[in-house]
Amino acid sequence: MNRILVVLIALGLLVAAGAGLAWHGYAVAPLALPDAPMRLRVERGASLAAVGASLRKQGVDLPAWRLSLAARLRGDAHEIKAGVYELAAPLSLAGLLDKLVRGDVLLFDLTVVEGWTFRQMRAALARHPELRQDSAKAADAEILARIGAAEKHPEGLFFPSTYRFSPGSSDYEIYAQAYRMMKQALEQAWAARAPGVPVATPYEALILASIVEKETGRPEDRAMVAGVFTNRLRVGMMLQSDPTTIYGLGEGFDGNLRRSDLRAPTPYNTYTRGGLPPTPIALPGRDAIAATLKPAETRALYFVARGDGSSEFSEDLAAHNRAVTRFQLQRERQ
């Protein structure tokens, strides 16, 4: 009887020791990760066996059966999230599974700035080292076709915002997301537009919003700038916008707008052509779109930069000319 008791105690101790070792190997013992942080890509719908195979391929000695068993015992074997993970020592098996279940994936940011041109947006995406450059050799029209855009010209179609993505994502994913967000923002603003705004379609509103974006130095002036251009369109006055004229000059513009440039025969020269230019000239933000479709109620037809980012607004040409002279003299004295 005593021998049986001794055997049972010994077996119990062995089981307890085994359980302790198993717990230590699960919750405490660090995995043999490389010294530098490594990345683990988990594809959508991947099994734990596939995850284990990927780890072994990168030199991490973690048997797939051990990974699968631990996840099943936890009850979350089917809750692993897809994405790219950054793994750094020290990390236990429990810590690894926690990350995979939480979806603690590695994400990068890319900010598209209000007022950028599409060319500037393309350059920013091309510079990002974590984006897959699938559109590198594509013409602008090919990018639009790939993301399902019906428009033929890309300018103005992409929403300025900060986009987050997993490393190795296609640049087309950013284009598609930014295009959808712009469509949504424009549709919402169009539905809430003020009565009588002198634009016939959401695309015309986008064109005017891009001009407002480029012409506004301070956010508080945005609605007034929109009001000036709204008034000019209503009375049939030329927009006479420097940014549209500069856009029409393209890469040939050297930063100095000359009188001869104001006579340049481009479709974007609003000093020689009435109405709106044929396309937007930049990527307008949400506030510029809102101001365009709900402009300030004003009789102003003119504005001039004061030199501090703000603008002076005038209702007639004489007052405008006086303001131009005053602020030019101030700049010359500085």
UniProtKB/TrEMBL annotation:
Site (Important for catalytic activity): 215
A GO-annotated cellular component: plasma membrane
Domain of life: Bacteria
InterPro entries, per the entry: MLTG-like
Keywords: Cell inner membrane, Cell membrane, Cell wall biogenesis/degradation, Lyase, Membrane, Transmembrane, Transmembrane helix
Molecular function terms from GO: lytic endotransglycosylase activity
One of the protein's GO biological processes: peptidoglycan biosynthetic process
Catalysed transformations (reactions): a peptidoglycan chain = a peptidoglycan chain with N-acetyl-1,6-anhydromuramyl-[peptide] at the reducing end + a peptidoglycan chain with N-acetylglucosamine at the non-reducing end
This enzyme's EC code(s): 4.2.2.29
Membership in a protein family: Belongs to the transglycosylase MltG family.
Function: Functions as a peptidoglycan terminase that cleaves nascent peptidoglycan strands endolytically to terminate their elongation.
Protein name, entry field: Endolytic murein transglycosylase
Organism: Quisquiliibacterium transsilvanicum
Primary gene name: mltG
